[in-house]
Amino acid sequence: MTTFQPAPVPGEAPPADSVRPKDSTPQAPTSVSRLNETIRGFIQTWGSVWVEGEITSWNLRGGNVFGRLKDNVTDATLAFRIWSSTRERLPADLKVGDHVVACVKADFFVKTGDFSFGVSAMRHVGLGDQLEKLERLRSQLRSEGLFDAARKKRLPFLPHTIGLITGENSDAEKDVHRNAELRWPQVRFRTKYAAVQGERCVPETIAALKALDAAPDVDVIIIARGGGDPQTLLGFSDERLVRAVATASTPVVSAIGHENDHPLLDDVADLRASTPTDAAKRVVPDVAEQRALIAQLRARLTGRLSQRVSHDIAQLEQLRSRPALRSPESILTSRAQEVELLVGRGRFRVDRALDAQAQATSELRATLRALSPASTLARGYAIAHLSDGTIVRDAAQAPASARVVVTVGRGSFAALSEGEVAETPSPDDHDAAGGAVAPI
């Protein structure tokens, strides 16, 4: 393959192995790597340039940054990379949306054919100092507790009147009205117009805020503005406005700019909405959703009540089917039979006990009678005792002519002793009392 040398660039030596387009043919094409080397040789002859634009992409990978810059006039973009060693020397607050100037140097990767710019320096343009002041103010207000979630007020579920602060005849006003009325047709607004940028923005917004905050029928206040560059949104980061919102007694919703916009008003407001449309959707409930929710809750309540009633009816039927409730007299009948059986058994046991005791009593009475002195006297025996009551136990106690009283089975009589006779009574003739008992 023939080697073709490109025309040298003034002041620069031509690449050693470069190719010019006219020197390649279908019969003698050049290689991809050689073409890429040629392109890289031309690109390396360029020096570093300063370029201005907006950061639209900022991806951090392994300590290196890969992003894109956009021209806000023509929307042209370029890719850039920042090595980790360079990134350490750049401002730490660089992010998507920042307007910056960067010192870049073109580079072309031979292996992949990718064209990129390496960044050696980057800084904010115009708003750099103001953005730094805002960040310092943000840190100060955060330390004072103005951004704490605990101090934020809860929004009403259904506001009677919504206070709206926005620019006159602005798209933000139309968006809020349209979306709020679509969700709840009876919603009412009290609108205060204020400049949304420039020197009049802060004082007019504060005046409108105070007026709506003092109105007793206003339940929530929305501060709305469409998107814009950071310069036009500076008024909504003013310390005076931020502190006025923090001291308001009515809940305040911030709806400034788009999703990427982040003024200080967003941090201090009770609710931050990404857009005016989002503010309307988050402040006003959807009547269709609420009706559907009510219908769902009614259905759930009806189902629960029906289930509870059916359960109670089933339990009642189960109780009614029990024998005790189906025929309550059966309990009394069965118990009556049992009581009658127990009464009969008790009577039998009492009668048997009485009979046994009566028999025992008769036996004791017979035994007592058999052992009684009266029984002995009734068989013909007698007890003799002297006039002083001494029972005569020995014939020697009643000498001749002694007066004695003799007790027999029926009564007593007096007798006169004739003295001791020859016959002596048997010891068996003594009674249980120890007296002398003699047969008559």
TrEMBL record:
Belongs to the XseA family. It is an enzyme of class 3 (hydrolase). Pfam families: Exonuc_VII_L (PF02601), tRNA_anti_2 (PF13742). It is found in: Cytoplasm. One of its GO terms (molecular function) is exodeoxyribonuclease VII activity. InterPro entries: Exonuc_VII_L, Exonuc_VII_lsu_C, OB-fold_nuc-bd_dom. Its main location: cytoplasm. Residues 1-31, 418-440 are annotated as: Disordered. Residues 31-122 form the OB-fold nucleic acid binding domain. Heterooligomer composed of large and small subunits. PANTHER family: EXODEOXYRIBONUCLEASE 7 LARGE SUBUNIT (PTHR30008). It catalyses: Exonucleolytic cleavage in either 5'- to 3'- or 3'- to 5'-direction to yield nucleoside 5'-phosphates. This is Exodeoxyribonuclease 7 large subunit. The lineage of its organism: Bacteria, Bacillati, Actinomycetota, Actinomycetes, Micrococcales. It comes from the Bacteria. Residues 146-365 form the Exonuclease VII large subunit C-terminal domain. Its EC number is 3.1.11.6. Keywords: Cytoplasm, Exonuclease, Hydrolase, Nuclease.
